[in-house]
Amino acid sequence: MPAETAGTRHDRPGVGMVTAVSSTEDIRVRAENALARCGVELAAVKGDALTARTPVTGHDLFGLRADTPAGIDRAVEAAHTAFLDWRTTPAPVRGALVKRLGELLTEHKEYVADLVTVEAGKIRSEALGEVQEMIDICDFAVGLSRQLYGRTMPSERPGHRLMETWHPLGVVGVISAFNFPVAVWAWNAAVALVCGDTVVWKPSELTPLTALACSALLDRAIAETGAPAHLNQVVLGGAEAGTQLVDSPLVPLVSATGSTRMGREVGPRVAARFGRTVLELGGNNAAVVAPSADLDLTVNAAVFAAAGTAGQRCTTLRRLIVHADVVDTVVERLAAAYRRLPVGDPFQESTLVGPLVNEAALARMRESLDRAVQEGGTVVVGGDRQLQDAAPDAAYVRPALVTMPAQSAVVREETFAPVLYVLTYRDLDEAIRLHNDVPQGLSSGIFTADQGEAERFLAADGADCGIVNVNIGTSGAEIGGAFGGEKETGGGRESGSDAWRAYMRRATNTVNYSGRVALAQGVDFSR
Ligand code: NAD
Questions:
Q1: Which EC class is this protein assigned (predicted)?
Q2: Is 280 one of the annotated active-site residues of the chain?
């Protein structure tokens, strides 16, 4: 959402609180309709091993089948067999499949977005935005299918040519988190497919329906374009299903998105069998607010970055490091905006903050707020449960704004909920020190009108994150850039720029057309 849109909403006094919530029955009907429209055969996927649930009411929708270990093995083998064919299909022909997927996602945007709201609780505009992100990465990948460039280099030997070629890697295991239930798969799958790889997707156990819908749309695109069947397999299950992909020798690359805890288990296991990983893990993102910052822009951007998606983005703004000259004003304006934020049913147009994914997330938020107070912080606004009468089993909460006297243990952790800690600084070196003094390194920003300060923040001794912004909040990346973070965020890169290279293997080729043996480095082996 652009900052201006957010601003007009928060600054308008009297925006009503959302008090009613859709019924679980309405949500179930909506989910079944969306699945059917996307081509999912409900009878084939229903079962009693998993439960589809909605955070909108906190209630179960229906039971689903899960994949057995033998079923997961079969899915990996089928994807591997499809790879043997797909790897020699010309890349632009592979692009045609992804083009069709993008068209189908465009035609079914409303339905996929419905499922994102049903399962992840995202407000309508963010759910539609997530599907748009899938369409955008398909566009990118189609172009990429004609641009998988290798380099040529001058050979030191006469009559020789030296070059690099890029080849498909194999089956990519995609493990995804609940909070971007479809975009993360698309970032991986669209790029992997044009690179000549095939995909086995283990979605979050909290969001199986979105995965079934996307997979059905891709299956349709596969059938329509004549691509090999089984290019993309969905396997449903919990962490143990992910572990099976992690340990499979037929999966050369595991792209895993989720908590740092998960990455700590996945990374070493894949490395132990010399597999590759793309790890996209937790963030603890901060923005610096300099005295010269445009405070209207800053407050609007900060409210979206911190409270949008109910604080459940890996790029959510969790720390605001504000210059002492403007901190009181910034806190006052943020608090006013926070008090007015419409928290409620994400299906309703007026809502800006939907539910947390479950009760456990709310409990962790409360625990962090208690710890922040013990560590000397003050909760200025928020943290209180909302809509208890309308949706007693759902986890609605007012986003919390907390001033902290100094860096502390709780501030250095990622709490996956809408808690924004405000810290104060006096000079930019101190701000950058505070900024970098966390284990995570995903996204960052500085709000300033001083170009020197902005450049310092972007420089080698500035922010240590994978994403560094100026006059923009920490969330809401575009697909054109490579996405990912440093330190405990895992170091992976996905999506745009040259992130595709992680999905291919590189071969260095030297061709001798001289008719003579010539060794490199002047070595003479003739007698
Ligand atoms: P999670 O770690 O609980 O689960 C993520 C996925 O990993 C799920 O599919 C889960 O089943 C699987 N999993 C868990 N343990 C596993 C194991 N040992 N082996 C294999 N698979 C395993 O995360 P979540 O609660 O779904 O998502 C929230 C977290 O994800 C936050 O920390 C957030 O910052 C992070 N996240 C990061 C990015 C990014 O791009 N950096 C994007 C989205 C979310």
A1: oxidoreductase
A2: yes
